[in-house]
Backbone:
């Protein structure tokens, strides 16, 4: 049990009135001061009955959103006690965003309260909702007793994704063959695939029913393109190359748009931001977007040394490097990985153009300023790209 700010203010006012009574001799001042002090004391006595036996749960609709979306949260509070509780306040905390507050005058036994609020997701990130604080106060809110209950839910706000158009042509691959493959993937074609066991979250449309019936376990078609290995998207996490948070956020949106573009085209893509590859996860797309949702710039990071352990899976894949203003470390990483890549794309967020040496090395340079959109720059940078994918 605690005395609230209003309660302390009341006690302070009561003390001031008693001091004035002692100086001025006005009986009314003493009576008013004693009345306020008595109200605080009676409020303290009234909440000695215990902490409300209330259970709280919440539902998020939806739990996965992009920047700019709105999430609806339904809060459910149930009185499991055999007695009613009066003057209840429920505070649902949203880390970094604030809290939602509900005041309930009375909650009868075995009765459920339903509350709802909305969260505007202006910035990508991983936010925690909860735990919930349930408080009981006296009628004047001079005193209160409270406890924290309920589970913690996570709200994942993905970076905003732009719709890109076209894929870079790979060295040594017939563009017409690449276009045909892209169209086949979009139609759900089955020209190249292997089989693996079903995993939670897999698209049931990819179940290979003849093998499933034969082996008595669900088997999934996993498409493989012998001429087009996986793509690798590398995000430079160093804060020094961006110069501003806006530039870093623009780079994150570029990486998210690229990954979304590849997966929409039926191509597998790995993401590397300095740690583990997202291909190690059961659902690599969700893993990549989750990493990008929580990624923050790193002040001190040896980008070139950390990238030396990276290798493209197979030969001839697509390499995408996302950075701010390219520097020698970016050049080193590009040179290290480009050797096995069929195509290299450099996404830069900078007010200055990328050095000509990157273009001479065969890299496709997509460069924009902080806050600008990627879609137009991507399309202009790839005049030989396979259109209609994304």
Residues:
């Amino acid at each position: 049990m605690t005395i609230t700010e209003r309660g302390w203010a009341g006690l302070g006012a009561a003390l001031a009135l008693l001091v004035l009574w002692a100086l001025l001799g006005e009986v009314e001042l003493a009576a008013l001061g004693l009345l306020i002090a008595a109200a605080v004391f009676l409020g303290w006595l009234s909440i000695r009955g215990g902490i409300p036996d209330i259970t709280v749960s919440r539902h998020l609709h939806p739990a996965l959103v992009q920047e700019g979306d709105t999430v609806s949260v339904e809060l459910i509070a149930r009185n499991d006690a055999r007695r009613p509780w009066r003057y209840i306040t429920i505070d649902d905390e949203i880390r970094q965003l604030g809290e939602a507050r509900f005041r309930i005058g009375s909650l009868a036994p075995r009765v459920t309260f339903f509350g709802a609020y909305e969260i505007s997701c202006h910035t990508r990130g991983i936010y925690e909702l909860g735990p919930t604080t349930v408080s009981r106060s006296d009628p004047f809110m001079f005193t209160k007793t409270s406890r924290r209950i309920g589970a913690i839910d996570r709200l994942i706000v993905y970076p905003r994704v732009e719709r890109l158009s076209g894929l870079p042509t790979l060295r040594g691959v017939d563009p017409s063959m690449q276009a045909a493959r892209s169209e086949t993937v979009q139609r759900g074609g089955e020209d190249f695939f292997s089989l693996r066991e079903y995993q939670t979250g897999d698209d049931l449309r990819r179940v290979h029913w003849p093998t499933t019936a034969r082996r008595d376990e669900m088997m999934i078609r996993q498409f493989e393109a012998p001429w087009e290995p996986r793509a690798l998207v590398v995000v430079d996490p160093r804060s020094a190359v961006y110069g501003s948070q806006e530039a870093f956020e623009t780079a994150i949106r570029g990486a998210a748009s690229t990954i979304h573009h590849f997966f929409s085209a039926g191509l597998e893509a790995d993401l590397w931001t300095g740690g583990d590859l997202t291909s190690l996860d059961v659902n690599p797309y969700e893993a990549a977007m989750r990493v990008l949702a929580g990624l923050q710039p790193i002040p001190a990071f040896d980008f070139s040394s950390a990238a030396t352990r990276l290798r493209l899976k197979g030969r001839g894949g697509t390499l995408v490097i996302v950075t701010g203003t390219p520097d020698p470390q970016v050049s080193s990483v590009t040179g290290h990985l480009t050797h096995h890549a069929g195509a290299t794309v450099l996404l830069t967020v900078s007010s200055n153009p990328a050095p000509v040496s990157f273009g001479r090395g065969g890299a496709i340079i997509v460069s924009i300023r902080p806050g600008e959109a990627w879609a137009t720059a991507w399309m202009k940078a790839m005049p030989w790209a396979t259109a209609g994918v994304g």
Notes: The first strand starts at residue 2 and ends at 3. Residues 2-46 form one domain. Confidence is low (pLDDT under 50) at residues 172-193, 224-228, 385-390.
